Amino acid sequence: MTDTAPRPTLEAVAARAGVSRATVSRVVNGGDGVREPLVERVRRAVEELGYVPNQAARSLVTRRHGAVAVVVAEPETRIFADPFFALQLRGISKELTAHDNQLVLLLTEGRDDHARVGRYLAGGHVDGALVFSLHLDDPLPELIQRAGVPTVFGGRPGWSDGTTDVVYVDSDNRGGAREAVRHLVGLGRTRVAHITGALDQTSAADRLDGYRDVMGDADSELVVRGDFTPAGGERAMRELLDRCPDVDAVFAANDLTASGALRVLRERGRRVPEDVAVIGFDDMLPVAEQTDPPLTTVRQDIEEMGRLMARLLLRDLDRRNGGATPAGVVLPTTLIRRASA
């Protein structure tokens, strides 16, 4: 058995810093009205004593929990297999950590999980929510609205409930797709196909629209549905080659889809890019630089999207900063040229 040293109190910090308990409380809880020299004395005393604020008491003062829910509307198997989610979560985590907030990860494996997530958000455990990878029939937006928690969405909202003040962060999916397809056409390719993503998500729908912006009335047989996974890319590429053997270019909805398509092209003896040029979307380096050949792709800054989502939510929560939060932020994309096209 060992004796445990008593936990430092606000009073101990105040005595060490030579200020009042109220001054220490204002500094610790992020309040205004304390002169900078006093703030520094309090911070020094906090560090010297190893003072840790009582979160429950702090919440009573600030009405903040210092925690943000991150809700990913995908099953665990998808989240831990797709580097997109790791990059976005890394950006979110960096921003929340920089502002002393905890990340609470909530996953939705099935319909029962939606109700659980809704109850958790409504229970007052977190200050706000960051939600991404929504599907068009997802009940989460309605559940979140009922819970009444400030929320930022990753991706352009696809539901239409009359709400106009939804805050979201997205990339220019349509513009990026147009640039990719124009590049393929500029290479002299005339049978340019598209393997879509999951079309119940706005990112996939926008990339399909970008393809159609350039290709116009192209043969409908050149569009094959995928699901943003390597297996979906393989299946779609086989289907595409069976019905359009003269295809000479493929724009894939993401890098994972493109990686699956490349494997099938190699199996079928098609040279890339000599016979078929291939472009992906995302520029996830663990994928794009390791395909054979390295993948030409549309870069979106996935980590920055995560950071910006968190930044917008924290700005909304911290009313002292003032100013209106923009309804939607769309980040630019860039075509990264490698050997596949």
Q: Could you walk me through the main structural features you see in this protein, from its secondary elements to its overall organization?
A:
- By secondary structure, the chain is an alpha/beta fold.
- Helices cover 45% and strands 16% of the residues.
- The chain has 14 helices and twelve strands.
- The strands form two sheets. Strands 2-1-3-4-5-11 form a six-stranded parallel β-sheet, sandwiched between helices. It has a six-stranded mixed β-sheet with strand order 7-6-8-9-10-12, with helices on both faces.
- Helix 8 links the parallel strand 3 (128-132) and strand 4 (151-154).
- Helix 1 (10-17) packs across helix 3, helix 2 packs across helix 3 (36-49) and helix 11 (230-243) crosses helix 12.
- The longest helix is centred in the N-terminal third of the chain and has 16 residues, at 83-98.
- The radius of gyration is 25 Å and the shape is elongated.
- The protein starts with 9 loop residues before the first helix and ends in a 5-residue tail after the last strand.
- The model has no long low-confidence stretch (mean pLDDT 87).
